[in-house]
UniProtKB/TrEMBL annotation:
SUPFAM superfamilies in the cross-refs: Xylose isomerase-like
Keywords on record: Isomerase
GO-annotated molecular function: isomerase activity
Name of the protein in question: Isomerase
InterPro entries registered for this protein in UniProt: IolE/XylAMocC-like, Xyl_isomerase-like_sf, Xyl_isomerase-like_TIM-brl
Source organism: Terribacillus saccharophilus
Domain (Xylose isomerase-like TIM barrel) ranges: 20-268
């Protein structure tokens, strides 16, 4: 099983150049690059060509650009900006040979009917997939386990992806988000596992459904998520994709980045080697 690192895990105590050096040192196979902050920060000092060369010369490889945010139910003006942003991400992904772009649904306090959410999401994903096809890049939709996210359960996200019915459009299964809004293990058992493109590994403090936020995440295996249940199903269904650790814990940001990267790998491997 290949192991990936999501930069959210060292969001406030590192940068892309440092993350690459430390992930290479500690034997990670992949990195998910944050395009909203860490990549622009990197490009103020280095070039995209230098980043591409780094990946060519080292073991660690880019796995996903994370993320195209709030892709559905946007105004016409906002949507055009989104498309422009996506086109730029496609160029980055082409240069760096990144296979996936993560797409995050709209988070809003506005109440939007589920049929309107689905209609918008399906239409947008069709267009994004059409733009991405010449690049050979796939889209991974990441539902967010919070009441204010328009797509907040595995079941809802899977239904949308199935309706899109494009082999280049699938899902991010983040264990935290799966747990946070009580997504169903039974639904996961019934799913076509080839639609799960990316697996995010994490854990969380034991707070009620609907109240969890990213900052509640803890080291894998140190919290309340039924990781055994999720990973057992994935094993039974033959999932063999990389596992990426993604944490947003404020107290981990106070640690040295290398200590976080080392600990994240140790705890993730301890959990996943039992199942995958």
């Amino acid at each position: 099983m290949k192991l990936g690192f999501n930069q959210a895990t060292t969001l406030e105590n590192s940068n892309l150049a440092t993350d690459l050096e430390l992930c290479e040192k500690h034997g990670y196979d992949y990195i998910e690059i944050r395009t909203m902050d860490k990549l622009p920060e990197y490009l103020k000092q280095y070039s995209l060509e230098q980043l591409s060369s780094y990946f060519q010369e080292h073991h660690i490889k880019p796995f996903a650009l994370n993320a195209l945010v709030y892709f559905n139910n946007r105004s016409e003006e906002d949507y055009q900006q989104l498309i422009n942003e996506f086109k730029q991400m496609l160029e980055y992904a082409k240069e760096l040979q990144v296979p996936y772009i993560v797409a995050v649904p709209l988070v809003t306090k506005e109440k939007i009917p589920k049929k309107d959410i689905k209609e918008s999401s399906v239409a947008v994903l069709h267009e994004l997939a059409e733009l991405a096809e010449p690049y050979g890049i796939k889209l991974a939709v990441e539902f967010v386990g919070h009441p204010e996210c328009t797509i907040n359960t595995f079941e809802q996200a899977y239904d949308i992806v199935q309706t899109v019915d494009n082999p280049n459009v699938g899902l991010v299964l983040d264990c935290f988000h799966f747990h946070a809004m009580n997504s169903s293990i039974e639904a996961l058992k019934q799913a076509d596992i080839s639609k799960v493109f990316i697996l995010h590994m994490d854990d969380t403090e034991d707070f009620p459904t609907g109240s969890l936020v990213d900052e509640d995440r803890v080291w894998p295996g140190h919290g309340a998520i039924d990781l055994e249940g999720i990973l057992t199903v994935l094993k039974e269904k033959g999932f063999d994709g990389p596992v990426t650790v993604e944490l947003f814990r404020p107290e981990y940001y106070e640690m040295k980045a290398e200590d976080v990267i080392r600990k994240a790998k140790e705890t993730t491997k301890e959990v996943i080697t039992k199942y995958l």
